[in-house]
């Protein structure tokens, strides 16, 4: 694999997992609730994200599209491009914020969520203002650390139960898998679009997406196995992996808190920088002031999620429907 393929694989895996995957709440909600059907949903979602990314990013590469705005301009025309771009950016910033807030509310017992949120923002800021190379390197290190962490939890399981397919034998697992795919595809698209128009070798892009898809599938399947093994203990938790870490590892709470703070901060910085860079190029803005405005928006959404926990579902649903709308429109345009 060449350097470009490795970069794409790392960026794809980091963005597809999302900045707050370590807590396990999204996996619990979208997959583990549905037992073995959820495992099938993981396979379909990972393949779907990989295939859609290949198709849409290939389209962007051919048409030299480097931002969400340019993509909307190509698909919807000038009349709708600006509005759709602003709405999508707002929901993505909101998603980063509410996920940081939700994590902060339960991460460190006995410490105010506001202080935990400040720690998370400090990590994010530290990487944001070191610029791209730090963010990329941090993303790669976080992926390796996360994989080792989940691998260690998996090895500590005496056995992994495989629920009967008669459990949750309905269409809800497929609907949740599609919603998960739509949300995380949008995250992936926002991060990888700046590369799509610049990559000189299409085969590097395909190879990077293939390796990234395999890595993401491995993460999700490991997480599913760990969560299924502790279903009765963690089914109502906002941070199920934290509870499992405390049970299985000496000093598990501290290890999990450090990993969650660093991973959440680094991967949030990855998304924010990827959103900001095309805007600065298009409008000839300075990067630092724009990042500060984005951080302010993220902070407001984070505080909102702490004060009003139901806002997490509202913002995440908005981002999900943005991704779903984009997928449906792109597939429809390909057929016409």
UniProtKB/TrEMBL annotation:
Kindly provide the name given to this protein in its UniProt entry. Transporter
Check the record and name the InterPro entries matching this protein: YkvI-like
Matches recorded under PANTHER family = CONSERVED MEMBRANE PROTEIN, MEMBRANE PROTEIN
Q: From which domain of life does this come?
A: Bacteria
Which stretches are transmembrane? 34-59, 71-95, 107-129, 134-154, 174-195, 207-231, 254-276, 288-308, 314-332
Q: What is the phylogenetic placement of the source species in the record?
A: Bacteria, Bacillati, Bacillota, Bacilli, Bacillales
Which keywords does UniProt give here?
Membrane, Transmembrane, Transmembrane helix
């Amino acid at each position: 694999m060449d350097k470009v393929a490795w970069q794409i694989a790392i960026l794809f895996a980091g963005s597809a997992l999302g900045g707050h995957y370590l807590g396990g709440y999204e996996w619990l909600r979208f997959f583990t609730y549905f037992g073995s059907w959820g495992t099938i949903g993981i396979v379909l979602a990972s393949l779907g994200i990989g295939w859609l990314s290949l198709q849409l990013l290939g389209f962007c590469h051919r048409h030299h599209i480097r931002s969400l705005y340019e993509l909307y301009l190509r698909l919807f025309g000038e009349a709708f491009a600006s509005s759709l771009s602003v709405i999508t950016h707002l929901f993505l910033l909101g998603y980063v914020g509410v996920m940081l807030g939700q994590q902060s509310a339960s991460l460190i017992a006995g410490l105010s969520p506001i202080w935990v949120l400040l720690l998370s923002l400090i990590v994010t800021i530290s990487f944001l203002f070191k610029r791209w190379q730090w963010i990329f390197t941090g993303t790669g290190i976080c992926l390796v650390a996360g994989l080792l962490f989940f691998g260690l939890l998996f090895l500590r399981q005496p056995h992994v139960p495989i629920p009967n397919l008669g459990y949750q034998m309905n269409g809800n697992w497929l609907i949740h898998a599609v919603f998960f795919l739509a949300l995380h595809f949008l995250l992936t698209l926002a991060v990888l679009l700046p590369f799509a128009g610049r990559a000189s070798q299409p085969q590097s892009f395909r190879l990077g997406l293939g390796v990234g898809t395999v890595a993401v599938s491995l993460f999700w399947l490991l997480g599913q196995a760990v969560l299924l093994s502790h279903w009765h203990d963690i089914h109502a938790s906002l941070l199920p992996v934290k509870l499992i870490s405390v049970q299985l590892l000496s000093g598990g709470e501290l290890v999990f808190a450090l990993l969650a703070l660093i991973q959440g901060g680094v991967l949030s910085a990855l998304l924010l920088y990827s959103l900001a860079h095309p805007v600065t190029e298009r409008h000839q803005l300075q990067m630092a002031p724009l990042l500060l405005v984005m951080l302010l928006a993220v902070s407001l959404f984070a505080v909102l999620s702490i004060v009003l926990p139901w806002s997490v579902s509202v913002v995440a649903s908005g981002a999900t429907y943005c991704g779903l709308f984009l997928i449906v429109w792109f597939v429809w345009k390909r057929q016409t």
